[in-house]
Amino acid sequence: MPLVEIRDVTKTFSRDAERIDVFNGLSMEIEQGSFTALMGPSGSGKSTLLNLIAGLDRPTSGTVTVGGAVVSGMSPAELATWRARNVGFVFQQFNLLPVLTAYQNVELPLLLTRLSKKERDERIRIALGVVGLDDRLRHYPRQLSGGQEQRVAIARAIVADPTLVLLDEPTGQLDAKSSQEVLSLLSRLNAEFGKTIIIVTHDPHAAARARRQLHLEKGTFVEQAMAAGAPA
Description:
It is built from 7 helices and 10 strands. By secondary structure, the protein is an alpha/beta fold. The chain has a 6-stranded mixed β-sheet with strand order 6-7-8-3-9-10, sandwiched between helices. A 4-stranded antiparallel β-sheet has the order 2-1-4-5, with helices on one face.
């Protein structure tokens, strides 16, 4: 069974008196353990689709199912609990809280769980170690480079050991060196830790790290060939 199933999804927005149809009967599947890049022009619905999968937005009609759970049918309270356990989301702007240290930012998702302080501490240190920032626990976002901030955001996304990690333009604000470091980290999370990863990107270098590329054009997916050099 696929991890993510999108079935006949429509999504409509209203802007003043204008109706905007983003998706009209979209269907797709994402396999567990895959690394997928969503590409396409601005306004094609890439970020909207990511938000639908994460339960941050609802389809106008159709169903979104993740791991057998019908996300599109959950109440807000159910969604919050489900998301905390199953989805790690990395936003385009990082969304780190400037008054909190790297350690405290990564701890935030765990505050919604019943883990003890000792268990939270262990998970936080493991997550920051995985992203190579175990020596930056007490640093604030302003004391970190852009690439380090992004890695803290990724550590926060994986600290609860979610099944699915979603990233919106993970290299959009980074220089070339930091971008490669983040992409290598994502490849490692996929290959070594078995995380299912979906990234939205305009960057062909980022997309080339994925095992599968999907191109959104006017609300319709066109699957691209497997990226050169990507593992089978």
